[in-house]
User: Which sequence fits this backbone?
């Protein structure tokens, strides 16, 4: 015979449940309140500290550059976050950064590297750039910048001048003759995707993920398939990532239909990423990575690897699963780049501080890495290793 619960007992149980619920709610509310109070107190202490510093400094320094101080404080604050992928941009720097992420540049349009003899060599000339229009060619050895012998300059100095000055006189040496080119900075579209056909193998170099990268990528892949390649090598070495939207569009283009990964926002919200069109490649691929392959480039390689679409060759990558967003400060037009979420593979999860591990490890020496932009395909050990995973390697 079943025992019946009396009305008084039922009421008592209900009261206990309600009391317990209220107690738990109050407990969590108090914890949240205490955390908020602690956060407010910490911020007040920080503001008081900055005010003390400012007050003390102004007692002894009258002619302060207020703009420089403001920028230094902001830059220091962002650095103090402890996230190496965050950054602060002055209004001028942000304008340049915005132009870059849109896939454009305003400079001379060359890439400079050191060869085995220590000479500064132009390894790449961007199409439609000032350098190309003036006749500068890949392979030119730079001998002087603005009539200053480059032997007295570092490669960093030369790159800075070519990337920032509005006018530059570049003297180069060629096997047949020496020449000088007067270059004026020019806005041009960055070619972040370069494709080459070698026998039956297509080679696709992706240098960054910008607004125009998906368009260039789709055009390159479609062109290679039309030319009848039986395998593709994707090269992500030196690719530090870029825009989340760009890599997501590219993965949606090459992945089989369905979910391929997710991203978790700073607030914990999870968004699953889905390929809307079935696999557009249809041929085997290998993907080259190194320890500077980071962010969106790692996501690209890791997702393809997990799905069995590619074989990853090279070195374990940088280990940056977090993605960033830009925030413009209305007060003066400056901006911050902050980590706002983290990418995850469907099965493998995050690779933060771990990296994407290649199936076929090939580690280059420091010298080989430095000379890689000037190497032929035959000299590139990682590229040669990638070919062994493709059906045709002529």
Assistant:
């Amino acid at each position: 015979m079943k025992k019946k619960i009396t009305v008084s007992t039922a009421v008592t149980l209900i009261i206990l449940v309600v009391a317990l619920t209220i107690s738990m709610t109050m407990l969590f509310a108090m914890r949240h309140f205490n955390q908020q109070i602690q956060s407010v107190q910490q911020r007040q202490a920080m503001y008081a500290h900055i005010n003390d510093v400012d007050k003390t400094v102004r007692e002894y320094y009258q002619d302060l550059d207020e703009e420089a101080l403001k920028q230094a404080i902001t830059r220091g604050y962002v650095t103090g976050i402890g996230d190496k992928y965050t950054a602060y941009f002055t209004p001028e720097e942000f304008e340049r950064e915005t132009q870059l992420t849109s896939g454009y540049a305003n400079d001379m349009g060359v890439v400079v590297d050191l060869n085995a003899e220590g000479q500064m060599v132009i390894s790449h000339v961007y199409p439609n750039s000032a350098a190309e229009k003036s006749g500068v060619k890949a392979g030119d050895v730079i001998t002087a910048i603005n009539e200053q012998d480059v032997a007295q300059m570092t490669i960093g100095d030369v790159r800075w001048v070519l990337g920032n000055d509005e006018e530059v006189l570049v003297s180069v040496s060629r096997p047949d003759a020496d020449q000088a080119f007067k270059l004026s900075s020019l806005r041009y579209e960055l070619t972040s995707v370069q494709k080459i056909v070698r026998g039956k193998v297509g080679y696709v170099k992706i240098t960054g993920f910008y607004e125009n990268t998906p368009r260039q990528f789709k055009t390159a892949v479609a062109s290679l398939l039309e030319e009848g390649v039986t395998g593709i090598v994707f090269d992500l070495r030196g690719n530090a990532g870029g825009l989340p939207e760009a890599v997501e569009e590219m993965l949606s283009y090459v992945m089989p239909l369905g979910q391929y990964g997710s991203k978790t926002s700073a607030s914990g919200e999870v968004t699953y990423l889905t390929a809307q069109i079935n696999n557009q490649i249809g041929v085997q691929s290998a993907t080259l990575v190194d320890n500077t392959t980071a962010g969106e480039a790692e996501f690209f390689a890791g997702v393809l690897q997990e799905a069995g679409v590619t074989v990853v060759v090279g070195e374990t990558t940088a280990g940056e699963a977090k993605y960033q967003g830009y925030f413009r400060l209305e007060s003066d037009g400056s901006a911050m780049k902050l980590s706002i979420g983290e990418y995850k593979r469907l099965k493998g999860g995050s690779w933060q501080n771990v990296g994407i591990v290649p199936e076929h490890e090939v580690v280059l020496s420091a010298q080989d890495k430095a000379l890689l932009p000037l190497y032929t395909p035959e000299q590139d050990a990682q590229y040669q290793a990638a070919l062994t995973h493709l059906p045709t390697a002529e």
Observations:
- The first helix runs from residue 7 to 58.
- The mean pLDDT is 90.
- The CA atoms of residues 111 and 124 lie 5 Å apart.
